[in-house]
Amino acid sequence: MNRVIGVLGAIAAALALMTSTAGAANRHAPPRRARAVPPAAAQRPHVVLPGTGTIPWGPCKDAILKRLGAQCGTVSVPIDYADPTGPHISLAVSVLAHSSAAADYQGVVLTNPGGPGASGLDLSAELAATLTHERYDAAAADYDWIGFDPRGTGSSEPVRCQRNFQGPDRRDYTPRTKSLLHYWLSRSDAYARACVSHGAQQTAILDNDTTIDSARDMDAIRAALGVPEITYYGFSYGTYLGQVYATLFPANVRRLILDSNVDPRGVWYGSNLAQDPAFERNVNIWFAWLAKHHRFYRLGATRAAVSRRFYAVKAALAAKPIRGQVGPDEWTDIFLQAGYYEQTWLGLGALFAGWVHHPGVRTGNALVAAYRATDSPSDDNSLAAYLAVQCSDAPWPHSIGTVLADNTRVNRSAPFITWANAWFNGPCSYWRPPSSTPVQINGGGIANALLIDETLDAATPFEGSLEVRRLFPRSVLLAEPGGTTHADSLSGDRCVDGTIAAYLAVGTLPARRPNAEWDKTCHPLPVPEPRLAKPGVAPALAPDGGLPGRREPSRAAVTG
């Protein structure tokens, strides 16, 4: 369920290291919102929020928010909601104020990009700018768009545990030997210990950093804004946050948009295991796509041949990592993104083919740059904030033997990321802060909701959207059959984006079809297609990596 931090931008930057002498590439990936900000957005007038809001707004430090004309502030919330008069922390919030007439004002939209552990401070403003860019003016202009960094994340009292946990060159994820198994168990234990060694303030935050806490933080933001209800738009893990908020505060929800839905039945251990076969399926779909374009990439004419080439390179890197940094683990992490987003296929194909056909300084530097952008080894805030929720929302198996047996079983048929995913969540087996009992999700008090998902989503398998549709009896589910991309609404698909815009602007939703699996069908965006620049040009020099995507922690964990 994770979205990756600037993954498409990271791929583009890595490719730039290889293509500095090449001609301009054709761009086949659809534009993503970080590059879709209309120039006029900076002139959006500031309008004072209605109601009795108490947030002191001022200039934002973030360059995107400045450009969009947003303002920033903070909201004070108790660390422990059971002790509301005890120590507080500050949550960073932003607002892109409505620009429509007072008579057209429809309230506030709060958003969350997923994770957990993802900064969401600029997401709302970017979504509003995208709607404006796509000419859905009323859907954007009638609302105050509110972004925030969840507790422990970004500018909201960030937690950190061990900065180089994802640093190079880590030993092979797959514990084929007792030595490798001991290495990963020890690392997991050490990380969990490190998290509670950063002082009383961080320990207190970690003790109170569940999805329930974040839902209460959202309601504190609503109260500080001086509004009686919110519209909420969440992606990936943000859909679970929305489910919890809607269960705890149903009277405070006006409209609800959930893209790529977490199945609440699997929070969180079961959901991680469910991801592994889904990513196995999706990486094989990508291998088949590379085989289809064998003339371009020259990596194999069949899916099986491409797969063999991929794992042969991975095995070779165990003995000789690229620049001492990209070994088999880092190789897996880089190419995991193909299972998340079809928009990465061109750029990742270029990185793969570039190293196979032209191993050397340029292609090696590009892979190192992609790894460093994907794993962010110099700062573990996203990982620490992710684990703070992941390990605390629900009890983790107490037995290491159970965890090892489950992952060994799943790995037999899904070796691509099973052990990578297991060790990404490994600290949960040793986590010191207490676990809580998940909320029993109940959407019966919600008058309407729009659910969105691609049917081959790997990070949040489609069964989650079917279950959420069942739990929210007045929701409608928009499905994109055959699509493998995760959490990509408002990415240029007019069928999807128009449905969202109509719901925001006038409250219109497709009809619910009681006897069907879903209620509305949209075709996913076209799969990208590479083109040969000219005969003789190295395949790694032609494709473009695409544009930056919505940001989330790097790696496949159960969130997104």
Plain-language structure description:
By secondary structure, this protein is an alpha/beta fold. The chain is built from 20 helices and nine strands. The protein folds into two domains: 7-23 and 160-200 and 268-433 and 528-541, no CATH class; 33-159 and 214-266 and 444-521, Rossmann fold. 40% of the residues lie in helices and 10% in strands. A nine-stranded mixed sheet has the order 1-2-4-3-5-6-7-8-9, with helices on both faces. The protein is globular. The model is unreliable at 1-5, 20-47 and 533-559 (pLDDT under 50).
Task: Describe the structure using short key phrases.
alpha/beta, Rossmann fold, 20 helices, globular, disordered N terminus
Please render the helix and strand layout as text.
Blueprint: H1 7-18, H2 63-68, E1 71-78, E2 88-96, E3 108-112, H3 123-133, H4 137-141, E4 144-148, H5 178-195, H6 200-207, H7 211-225, E5 230-235, H8 237-248, E6 253-259, H9 269-292, H10 294-297, H11 303-319, H12 328-335, H13 337-340, H14 345-357, H15 361-375, H16 381-390, H17 400-411, H18 418-424, E7 449-454, H19 463-471, E8 475-480, H20 494-506, E9 520-521
Parallel strand pairs: 3-4, 3-5, 5-6, 6-7, 7-8, 8-9
Antiparallel strand pairs: 1-2, 2-4
